[in-house]
């Protein structure tokens, strides 16, 4: 793949356009279903804990598959990988649209995820190999457009479709688009790749699957089951041990499945750390705000999605602009400005009340997304720019995997804080309310008081979670001051190969 792209001075715009569309529908599909879970639960007569597997299962397969993409990208051509990925995704989408039972729907979602997991790292790798360092900001801005815009419109589109159609329409809508993208890929993707002598270490694959799968499942379950559940802490511990064994094994292999030597490059290591922190903070708004809007304020699913739409559209529009600014000014200035805005707006979200206006929520969320748009892609691109070309597949796979894991950790942490603080506030508020009651309260008064206490307690729990998110954002802001404009590091292997060739050239 790298061969075919590097042989021409013209960037692979056609390949990137096809991959962008494929990545867009895979990301859109991931968020479309979240809003539909209650409807599916009712239609298929299953419990909330069961239906949640449609989201958890998808995320788990992504987490297990993404580490192996570094190997796949080195081994196979863009054409072969993309057509395989989009074919798998299409089969899963069709199967999900006609699934008569939950078990078949779950299998279909996991098939979708196995195709989707390949597309995002593949797209990022093509962008890195197809453009010089000084032009990558603009093109990575397009990647940011997909990364943010697709998940942004997902809930709104899903809410509208569910008001007018059956939940199966969510899959029927994506199916024809996926088929068209597959056909376009068949006819237009023509790149070839020289045969590569690279074999997948099956034990590494097993270790990475247990490591990332276990940690993702453990942290994802912590919000609902609690940290003291054996199902949570056992899977996290097993995952952590497997991760240590996986890293040790990769350090001993001549051709590792996922090369942790990328962390020898300081700007990549720093960008990775900031990305982890940002992913945790980003999920706070996406997770806590819908709970506040729908549960406490009683705003409909559709209007909840519409509330987030302007901010998400702004973030999508800003991504290419931010990319151009990154090429001109570098990542440090953008990251500091963006994280300052993100921290301030997150702080204002920690001051929510029972009557915060809808307009105020839209403005705050839009401002927060504007800040986020200046951070995610510039920081990631700056880190990847320092890596030698042969490390690109490993860098992109590492970034995508860590975003999945940190997103799950962030979600679990914030939900747990919200739940625990809600219980504490409920006890305090109930005690305070009982003190102010006069005479013998009627059952109706007690019921009303309990409802008010529950709402107020949850509100305070959400505000406390946002305060923690402010702290997380501050950590990222401090780290941003250490960012330097990255230059591509010299590859020791290429230098060594060059030294071997030079004497022969001199003799000739």
From TrEMBL:
Q: Which residues form the Major facilitator superfamily (MFS) profile domain?
A: 15-488
Keywords, A to Z, come to: Cell membrane, Membrane, Transmembrane, Transmembrane helix, Transport
Q: Could you list the residue ranges that cross the membrane?
A: 12-33, 53-73, 80-98, 104-126, 138-157, 169-188, 200-219, 231-248, 268-293, 299-317, 329-349, 361-380, 465-483
What's the domain of life for this entry?
Bacteria
**A Pfam family reported for this protein in Swiss-Prot or TrEMBL:** MFS_1
Query: What InterPro entries would the database entry show?
Result: EmrB-like, MFS, MFS_dom, MFS_trans_sf
Quote the subcellular location field of this record.
Answer: Cell membrane
Look up keyword Transmembrane helix and say if it applies: yes
Task: Provide the membrane topology annotation.
Answer: Multi-pass membrane protein
Q: What family is reported?
A: Belongs to the major facilitator superfamily. EmrB family.
| Protein name (record) | EmrB/QacA subfamily drug resistance transporter
Source organism per entry reads: Neobacillus ginsengisoli
């Amino acid at each position: 793949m790298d061969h075919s792209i590097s042989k021409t001075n013209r960037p692979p715009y056609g390949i990137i356009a096809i991959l962008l569309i494929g990545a867009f529908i895979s990301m859109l599909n991931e968020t479309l279903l979240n809003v539909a879970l209650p409807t599916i639960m009712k239609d298929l007569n299953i419990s909330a804990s069961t239906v949640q597997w449609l989201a958890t299962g998808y995320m788990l397969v992504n987490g297990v598959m993404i580490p192996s993409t570094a190997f796949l990208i080195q081994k196979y051509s863009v054409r072969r990988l993309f057509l395989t990925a989009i074919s798998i995704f299409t089969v899963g989408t069709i199967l999900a649209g006609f699934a008569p039972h939950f078990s078949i729907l779950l299998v279909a979602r996991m098939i979708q995820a196995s195709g989707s997991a390949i597309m995002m790292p593949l797209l990022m790798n093509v962008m890195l190999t197809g453009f010089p360092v000084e032009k990558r900001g603009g093109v990575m801005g397009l990647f940011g457009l997909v990364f943010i815009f697709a998940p942004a419109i997902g809930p709104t589109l899903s809410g509208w479709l569910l008001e007018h159609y059956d939940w199966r329409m969510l899959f029927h809508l994506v199916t024809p688009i996926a088929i068209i993208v597959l056909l376009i890929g068949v006819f237009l993707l023509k790149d070839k790749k020289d045969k590569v002598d690279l074999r997948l270490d099956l034990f590494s694959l097993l270790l990475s699957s247990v490591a990332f799968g276990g940690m993702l499942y453990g942290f994802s379950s912590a919000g609902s089951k609690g940290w003291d559940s054996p199902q949570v802490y056992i899977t996290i511990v097993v995952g952590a041990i497997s991760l240590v064994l996986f890293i040790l094994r990769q350090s001993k292999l001549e051709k590792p499945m996922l090369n942790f030597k990328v962390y020898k490059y300081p700007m990549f290591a720093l960008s990775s750390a900031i990305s982890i922190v940002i992913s945790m903070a980003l999920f706070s708004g996406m997770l806590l705000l819908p709970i506040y809007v729908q549960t406490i304020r009683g705003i409909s699913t559709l209007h909840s999605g519409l509330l987030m739409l302007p901010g998400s559209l702004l973030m999508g529009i800003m991504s290419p602009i931010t990319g151009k600014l990154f090429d001109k000014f570098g990542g440090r200035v953008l990251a500091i400005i963006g994280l300052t805005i993100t921290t301030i707006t997150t702080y204002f979200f920690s001051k929510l009340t029972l009557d915060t206006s809808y307009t105020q929520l839209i403005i705050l969320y839009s401002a927060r997304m504007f800040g986020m748009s200046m951070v995610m892609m510039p920081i990631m691109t700056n880190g990847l720019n320092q890596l030698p070309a042969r490390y690109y597949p490993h860098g992109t796979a590492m970034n995508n995997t860590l975003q999945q894991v940190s997103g799950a950790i962030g979600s679990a942490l914030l939900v747990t804080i919200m739940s625990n603080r809600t219980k504490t506030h409920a006890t305090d508020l109930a005690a305070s309310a009982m003190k102010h009651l006069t005479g013998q309260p009627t059952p109706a008064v007690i019921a009303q008081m309990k409802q008010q206490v529950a709402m107020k307690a949850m509100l305070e729990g959400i505000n406390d979670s946002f305060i923690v998110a402010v702290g997380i954002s501050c950590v990222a802001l401090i780290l941003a001051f250490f960012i330097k404009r990255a230059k591509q590091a010299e590859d020791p292997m290429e230098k060594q190969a060059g030294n071997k060739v030079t004497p022969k050239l001199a003799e000739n």
